[in-house]
Amino acid sequence: MTRKIIIDTDPGQDDAVAIFLALASSELDVQAIIAVAGNVPRSHTVENARRVLELAGRADIPLYAGAERPLQKTQTTAEHVHGPTGLDGIDMSWSPSMPVQEQSGVEYLIQSVRAAEPQDITLVMLGPLTDLAIALTLAPDIASRLREVVLMGGAWSELGNITPAAEFNIYADPQAADIVFNAGIPLVVLPLDVTHKCLGLPERLKALRDNGNRCSVAAADMLSYSERFDLDKYGWKGAPLHDPCTIAWLLQPEIFSGRSVHVGIETAGVLSTGMTVVDWWSVTGRAPNALFLTDADSDAFYTLLTTRLATLP
Ligand code: RIB
Ligand code: CA
């Protein structure tokens, strides 16, 4: 039985690799892509999503434009990691031709979840949570209709990557994250604690490149570009690979482990805005609202990623 998913994303090289992995996996039925402002402005994330879908030979998948800016916070982008286009590292000499849907991504999200059978749609969030937060505000009923929301974001012991206390996707729109984490939707969170254990070591990127097909080579090229910031910052042998962990969890959840805990979002901190406050030791008495994954078998993760991407064009 395939699982219907909608991917909300801010490509972003790691987003692109996550989308490739989803498209390479017959267990998943990608209903649509929604490109939101995040790593780079929405104009770029939409263009990048078109490019990724065309590289994968999937211009048939409907693409929607998501939110252009966070709910309240001034916009934070991450060109220092992803480059000025957000997809630096691959050949950008050609222009994609696939259309972007007229309907807004938020309207599509509401309409498609309402039209689907209850618990039929899984939402995969790879960027700021703005689109889902707006959809929940306009249509609270969708919360009980979603099967699950699987998101890359936050951190427990790894704290932050865009500030000392906060991870980018949450920090970019903390009010949106607060809405999502309080909506009562089954959440599966892949935080920095997991992604920092899934490092793109040279031999792993080489194995990807050695697949030889255009999507695997593009993935290796993209990650070889975006890694430079993290290698310099952390001094590790490989850069963390964030967004594909969400898709890998959907495909092989046994690769990951964690626990159900309460996660709160700091929205009014002086130094800690956007922090995911993880009640790992259940000291608050607050009911768990997320399956928070903190460990991964990184060899199994990269084996899955490399073997699946080999099946793409
Ligand atoms: O903190 C990592 C997250 O921020 C990833 O989703 C990456 O694409 C950026 O959006
Ligand atoms: Ca992302």
Describe the overall structure:
Helix 1 (13-23) runs antiparallel to helix 10, helix 4 crosses helix 5 (130-138) and helix 5 (130-138) packs across helix 7 (174-181). The protein contains twelve helices and eleven strands. It is of the alpha/beta class and 313 residues long. Strand 4, helix 5 (130-138) and strand 5 (146-152) form a beta-alpha-beta unit. The chain has helices at 13-23, 42-55, 79-82, 105-115, 130-138, 168-171, 174-181, 192-195, 202-210, 214-234, 244-251, 298-309; strands at residues 3-9, 28-35, 63-65, 121-125, 146-152, 187-190, 199-200, 239-240, 256-265, 276-279, 290-296. Helices cover 37% and strands 19% of the residues. It has one domain: Alpha-Beta Complex (Inosine-uridine Nucleoside N-ribohydrolase, Chain A). Bound molecules: alpha-D-ribofuranose and calcium ion (CA).
Give the topology:
Blueprint: E1 3-9, H1 13-23, E2 28-35, H2 42-55, E3 63-65, H3 79-82, H4 105-115, E4 121-125, H5 130-138, E5 146-152, H6 168-171, H7 174-181, E6 187-190, H8 192-195, E7 199-200, H9 202-210, H10 214-234, E8 239-240, H11 244-251, E9 256-265, E10 276-279, E11 290-296, H12 298-309
Parallel strand pairs: 1-2, 1-4, 2-3, 4-5, 5-6, 6-11
Antiparallel strand pairs: 7-8, 9-10, 9-11
The structure holds alpha-D-ribofuranose and calcium ion.
The site of calcium ion has 9 residues, from helix 1.
